[in-house]
Specification:
Blueprint lengths: L10 E4 L9 H28 L6 H30 L3 E3 H34 L4 H4 L2 H26 L9 E2 L6 H5 L7 H34 L4 H34 L3 H12 L1 H12 L2 H17 L1
Parallel strand pairs: 1-3
Antiparallel strand pairs: 1-2
Length: about 300
């Protein structure tokens, strides 16, 4: 990007989803409701898993961490937008923007890794049921979670530190409701070859490797289920991994949809609106998918709510 003069950056302008002032109250109310539903739903999942000893299993351990990740990702993107609309101030400081980029990358990367770990858990449970407790022991579950967190933090910090060396032009308006790395790269006057290479390498790692792991797991899962002699066994096998498969489809499906929309449209604002589908909606719907499709989770939530009601 050659247009514009290089300038010392102190802040960016987040243009949000629309510049129409009449729509701002509606957007604020809608996103506030979505954020509260996301936090409440995921918090209930965590409380239900922690309070019910029957749910102290690897699958629900990963689910609790996924709920924490969803809460973190939603807070990283939505809160700043709500503050900007409420104060009618679109500015975000340069350090604040870099911090938001870092957090979004960390939580997004962690989510992809956790979904892959959960797919491996379902693979072991269905394809190697007799060795499940031996393979999916506490040490392995904790190791997979901390390894996922470590590589996600490294990725977020790497991209954030690389942003520090960039020079920006006078046009510092981001047509988005949060600081997205791709949008910031477009504003720079610096050579972004290295940055783009790192972005593509990181994307291949955090998208390609988990997707390959999920596909590998479910290929063996489906093959194992189809070999079961009884219809009841097949139904139980598919129902065991149905919730996770729904979450994976929602997360990667919306992300792929946003990628397609950004490729076929030249409007950054339309891309920002489409990005709501992967940065907000999956995190809000995940608790409902797991609670409505899972009998154990519904029972745990019922016990938790009844216990809280009796205390009141």
């Amino acid at each position: 990007m050659e247009a514009g003069n290089k300038t010392a950056v102190s802040e960016f302008l987040l243009l949000g989803l629309t510049e129409d002032p009449d729509l701002q109250p509606l957007i604020f109310s809608l996103f506030l409701a979505m954020y509260l539903v996301t936090i409440l739903g995921n918090l209930l999942i965590i409380l239900a898993v922690s309070s019910d000893s029957q749910l102290h299993t690897p699958m629900y351990f990963f689910l609790s961490n996924l709920s924490l990740t969803d809460m973190g990702l939603s807070s990283s993107t939505i809160l700043k937008m709500l503050v900007n609309i409420h104060t009618q101030n679109q500015r975000i400081s340069y350090p604040g923007c870099i911090t938001q980029v870092c957090l979004v990358l960390i939580f997004s990367g962690l989510e992809t890794c956790l979904l892959a770990a959960m797919a491996y858990d379902r693979y072991v449970a269905i394809c190697h049921p007799l060795r499940y407790t031996v393979i999916m022991n506490t040490r392995l579950c904790v190791l997979l979670t901390f390894l996922s967190l470590f590589v996600s933090i490294v990725d977020g910090l790497l991209h954030s530190l690389m942003m520090l060396r960039l020079s920006f032009c006078t046009e510092l308006r981001i047509p988005h409701f949060f600081c997205e790395l791709a949008q910031i790269i477009r504003l720079t006057c610096s050579n972004t070859l290295v940055d783009n290479i790192v972005i593509y390498v990181a994307a291949s790692i955090f998208v390609g490797v988990p997707v390959f792991g999920i596909m590998f797991s479910y290929t063996h899962i489906v093959s194992s289920i189809l070999r079961m002699p009884s219809l009841e066994g097949k139904y139980k096998g598919f129902s065991t991994c149905g919730s996770h498969l729904s979450v994976v489809t929602l997360f990667y499906g919306t992300g792929f949809g946003v990628y397609i929309s950004s490729a076929v449209t030249d409007s950054p604002r339309k891309t920002a609106v489409a990005s709501v589908m992967y940065s907000v909606v999956p995190q809000m719907l995940n608790p409902f998918i797991y609670s409505l499709r899972n009998r154990d989770m519904k029972e745990a939530l019922s016990k938790l709510l009844c216990r809280r009601a009796s205390l009141v």
